[in-house]
């Protein structure tokens, strides 16, 4: 089940192998869909919408990693692995990387400066991410 690049990350301690759990993967993808819906609620603050979009991206990205039989404790690694789990080009997953850096500034330094365009870009990207993970689930024997 392992992809060579992901197996290399296991060897250096960035990922752990864990058998696929389709119930867990499906549940994570459902969470991603709910968070995406939340991120589009106009009555939420911009920060709240950003957090919802970020959490949707993380849940869907982690679901893709879990589908392949891996787990990561590092949120950034989950996004970086999209190049391997879903064949995403860097231009797509780097949007999530940028969001991750903004999230870390908020969580660890109390600084959150979000533009409407950041949330919009994430909301535009997320349906494709969710669809790509759903295709993985549908392809399972």
End-to-end Cα distance, whole Å, is: 13 Å
Beta-strand percent range: under 5%
| SS-based class | mainly alpha
Placed side by side, the strands forming the largest sheet appear as 1-2
- Helix content, binned percent: over 70%
With helices defined by DSSP (H or I, 4 residues minimum), what is the helix count? 7
- Dominant shape: globular
Short recap of the structure:
The chain has 141 residues and is mainly α. Helix content is 72%, strand content 3%.
Topology overview:
Blueprint: H1 4-11, E1 16-17, H2 22-39, H3 46-67, E2 70-71, H4 75-80, H5 82-85, H6 90-109, H7 116-139
Antiparallel strand pairs: 1-2
Tell me what the structure shows.
It contains 7 helices and 2 strands; from the N terminus they run H-E-H-H-E-H-H-H-H. With 141 residues, the protein is an all-alpha fold. A two-stranded antiparallel ribbon has the order 1-2. Helix 2 (22-39) runs antiparallel to helix 7. It starts with a helix and ends with a helix. The mean pLDDT is 90.
List keywords for this structure.
mainly alpha; two-stranded antiparallel sheet; 141 residues; globular; single chain; 72% helix
């Amino acid at each position: 089940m392992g992809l060579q690049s992901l197996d290399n990350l296991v060897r250096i301690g960035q990922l752990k192998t864990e058998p696929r759990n389709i119930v867990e993967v499906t549940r994570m993808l459902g969470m991603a869909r709910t968070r995406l819906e939340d991120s589009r609620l106009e009555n939420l603050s911009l920060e709240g919408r950003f957090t919802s979009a970020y959490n949707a991206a993380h849940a869907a990205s982690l679901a893709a990693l879990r589908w392949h039989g891996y787990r990561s404790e590092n949120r950034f690694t989950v996004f970086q692995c999209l190049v391997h789990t879903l064949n995403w080009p860097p231009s797509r997953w780097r949007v999530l990387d940028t969001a991750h850096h903004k999230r870390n500034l908020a969580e660890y330094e109390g600084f959150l400066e979000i533009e409407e365009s950041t949330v919009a870009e994430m909301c535009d990207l997320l349906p494709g991410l969710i669809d790509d993970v759903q295709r993985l689930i549908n392809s399972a024997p």
